[in-house]
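cron nightly-structures :: item 1 of 1
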Amino acid sequence: MKRLSILAFAVILAASCNFNIPVEEIVSALAEDSPEGLLELPAVNSGDVVITHSGYALCYNPSTKIPNWVAYELTAKEASGTLERGERSFSMDPKYKKTQAMREDYSNSGWSRGHMAPAADFRWDSDAMDETFYLTNICPQNSTLNGKDWNYLEGRVRSWAGKYGRVWVVTGPIVGTNKYGTIGEHNVVVPDSFYKVVLASKDGAYKAIGFVMDNDAKRYYLDKCAMTVNEVEKLTGLDFFPNLDDKIEEQVESQKKFSDWGIKTK
């Protein structure tokens, strides 16, 4: 990630390669590396394959061939970037040397290549945007969801970055019962649904909210698919925003205040 030092990156790489570095040392090195404590980073478990790029980090799942989570900080300046997406193409992640999904796995599958870290959040730097097209950042996603309600949510995240100055974002798939099976020669798992959790801070007060949308073409209004972060944690088995003070974490993760996010009920 753009705020990650060489030391912190080395710690993540060693952990991902199973060099027996304690999880506590991983978290400590990452937290000390940033004034904000890298609040976007979920709890890292032993054996997790964590990959870092210019603007985001991800936890890649070698079994499902999709990420468990993708995390990044988005500032107001970054959210207002003006670079065009252009003709960028999807490609394999050069930082992961083992078997991963390929473009051909998605061809004629009936599923779109859904960005977890969206390209539009990285219009502040061409290389950073290029890296969002690595297939480690991609999941099979319903094309209607990808182009409509999920895309709308991504746009709202950028508006929240503008409102609060920065937001910390974690997003990814929920495999669930794997009712859609797999695609391609490499058996890329098609998720049942997708989650996104967002953390913001204003005047020293933190607030957070989560969202879950099923991987289909139904309509998903934000007030209907919004959840507390705690509820998303139960669905995913992940621990979000562990670098917050425990008391603050529990308070913000147990609430969803639509007024904080400008969400209207329908």
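cron nightly-structures :: done
The first strand starts at residue 49 and ends at 52.
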